[in-house]
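Action item from last meeting closed. Structure (344 res):
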């Protein structure tokens, strides 16, 4: 009854077809997978991302009829990916999911005339207004839902490998497994999910530090719901040796795409704790500090006058002069050409 999931590119600027060499907001290195319309889940498309082979996600929510929605799937690793779904028809639509990965459902909008939502182990719900509601489906649990929409729903699905979810949060779950939750509200978790969705839609997937940081926070908020251990307060920032080693690595790789896990490993911290400690010490989140240092390097190269604007941008990892110009203007308020003229 349920067809294989399809994908429709709703914002192609942040994803490019497999095999392409896309420029994602100025990044000529990283590729994100775009799954073609009508792709069969049995087909395995391989794309290079952050130096690794990333396969088409095999575990997606089944939607029937598939032609009643617009759908876009974005993977930033084999173990963490998102599915953005917009209903386009007021007819009945059904959703079904059961897989060895965790699923977080965020209903940004939607009201149904009739419908029902069910997760294994919980009473079924016929709640009609789904706006700003969340559902968490642990790995292995069955999730089914159907709508006859009054207001067409807009839904985001976030998928997490259980091992990655545990590793990316500092909250220990002990022997207790994650519990299912159906159509609940949580302000912190909602804000984190919305920020990650916004980053995907705005085409910010070119910056792995930014996307990773948002994913780490989202994973932490999910485990927080199930942890009996209270969240520790923020104490000090990075130790001196941590800050020196991390900032030195960023300087040495300023033109590259740097993974959050790499920086956290240098500091010997979990990604979640590293993000908090870095911002406390530096005053900026890791991705913004990296972007700022890249533009500072560009200013030095432009001031020497031995390279053109295009050459400087390419040397710093930008695929096109226009994307380098946009990034430079965001940080400095002027274009690279204008800045170079002031140095003559």
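Sequence:
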């Amino acid at each position: 009854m349920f067809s294989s999931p399809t994908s429709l590119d709703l914002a192609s600027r942040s994803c490019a077809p497999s095999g392409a060499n896309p420029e994602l907001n100025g990044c000529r290195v990283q590729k994100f997978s775009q799954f073609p319309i009508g792709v069969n889940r049995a087909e395995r498309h391989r794309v290079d991302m952050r130096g690794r082979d990333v396969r088409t996600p095999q575990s997606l929510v089944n939607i029937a009829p598939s032609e009643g929605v617009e759908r876009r799937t974005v993977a930033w690793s084999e173990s963490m990916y998102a599915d953005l779904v917009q209903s386009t028809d007021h007819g009945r639509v059904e959703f079904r999911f059961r897989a060895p990965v965790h699923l977080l459902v965020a209903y940004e909008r939607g009201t149904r005339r009739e419908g029902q939502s069910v997760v294994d182990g919980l009473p079924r719900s016929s709640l009609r207004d789904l706006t700003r509601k969340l559902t968490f489906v642990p790995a292995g649990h069955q999730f089914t839902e159907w709508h006859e929409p009054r207001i067409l729903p807009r839904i985001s699905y976030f998928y997490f490998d259980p091992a990655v979810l545990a590793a990316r949060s500092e909250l220990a779950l002990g022997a207790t497994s994650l519990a299912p939750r159906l159509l609940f509200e949580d302000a912190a978790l909602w804000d984190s999910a919305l920020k990650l969705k916004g980053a995907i839609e705005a085409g910010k997937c070119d910056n792995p530090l930014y996307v990773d940081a948002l994913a780490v926070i989202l994973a932490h908020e999910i485990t927080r719901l199930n942890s009996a251990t209270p969240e520790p307060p923020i104490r000090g920032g990075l130790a001196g040796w941590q800050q020196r080693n991390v900032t030195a690595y960023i300087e040495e790789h300023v033109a590259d795409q740097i993974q959050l896990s790499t920086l956290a490993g240098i500091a010997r911290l979990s990604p979640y704790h590293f993000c908090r400690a870095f911002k406390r010490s530096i005053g900026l989140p890791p991705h913004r500090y990296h972007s700022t240092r890249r533009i500072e390097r560009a200013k030095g190269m432009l001031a020497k006058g031995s390279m053109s604007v295009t050459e400087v941008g390419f040397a710093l990892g930008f695929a096109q002069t226009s994307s380098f110009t946009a990034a430079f203007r965001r940080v400095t308020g002027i274009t690279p050409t204008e800045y170079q003229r002031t140095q003559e």
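Note appended to the action item: The longest helix spans residues 208-226.
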